[in-house]
Amino acid sequence: MSAIKVSEGIYSVGILNPNMRIFDIVMTTEYGTSYNSYIVKGENKTALVEVCHASYFDSYLNNIKEVCNPKDIDYIILNHCEPDHSGALADLLDICINAKIVVSKVGNMYLRNITNRSDYEVIVANNNDVIDLGGKTLKFISAPFLHWPDSMFTYCEESSTLFSCDVFGCHYCEPYTFDKNITYPKGYEDAFLGYYNAIFGPFKKFVLAGLDKIKNLKIDTICTSHGPVLTSEHRLEYAMQKYQEWSTVTKSDVLNIPIFYCSAYGCTEKCANAIANGIRSVLPSANVEAFDVNYNDISTLAEKINSCDGFAVGSPTINSDAVAPISNLLNCIDAINCKKKPALAFGSYGWSGEAVPNLITKMKTLKLDVFENGFKFLFVPSEEDLRNAFEIGREFAEKF
Ligand code: FEO
Fold first, then answer.
1. I need a surface site. Which of 251, 323, 348, 354 has the fewest CB within 10 A?
2. How far is the CA of 82 from the centre of ligand 1 (A)?
3. Measured from the CB, is residue 225 less than 6 Å from ligand 1?
4. What HEC string does 82-132 produce?
């Protein structure tokens, strides 16, 4: 991609990566991504907002050179320091020899270890600090945990443009820069929601706080850090509304206490149903549904485990551990927002029975409120085992 003019004095100089399929190890991206970066030219000074992934340095530098001499860049602004936006910084400092780095106070703590150098000048941007480029001012708006502790927005009032960091972005790549050119809207919306869920889902209250900080700004353009630039004529309003909607949590009046299990021979499944009946006996109006993890979509189950009021999870012991589908489900837990959520482990075993204690260890690591020692039983549950499972369900229900 070459440099593209966004508006008067603002240029997109980022990099497209349409072939990326896995981002940050844990995120799949069906639609590639882009590493967006922008140059803002004032009458007197020039700023570069966001940098780029280290792997694309040469192409990135070529894009910058289409807009200005890198030596004329006065400020390199990092809205947060994650390496997809700061990876090329260390090399760029050798080229942009007159640039000062602008980061938040927390961001300044990360810079040295991200660049492994200290020969740079930093301007620490506090909330509402301004840099005047001449005819364009850049205001910095603190936005902690959107999605890093050091995150901030940069706002150019004269251009009604918000440089939004990762907020409102997505892993979606088309050869066009703007939202008006999206040729596969369904794909974009899928990527936009997926990105929100993965990156901002754990930080909903911070999203609302961030939206509150920008609600009175006149914003016609949002220069995101991934995906299309958003414009007021097209998807800008949609993006802001969706973030507001998705971040507003409404608490159900009905308790949701799902039970997730895997069962090779129906033993753990019988126990799951007995525990469910025990819970229902104490909480008759609660929604207590049992899900065989092998026969349900993992993203649906992930949503259930993260949004429920508490849950039980059951696995037989195979090869001295819980089975992989159950471990995978626990790996989907949003540990930030599920802290102290009641959780119970159970399962059948034949030899040594490590599944239940291992699940308990894992759930304690996630800081869940784990119910005692869980419940495990040998091979096929006897009538007594099922009575005990029912009783465990009753006791677990007392926690709500
Ligand atoms: Fe796109 Fe949080 O980095």
1. 251
2. 5
3. yes
4. CHHHHCCHHHHHHHCCCCEEEECHHHHHHHHHHHCCCCCCEEECCCCCEEE
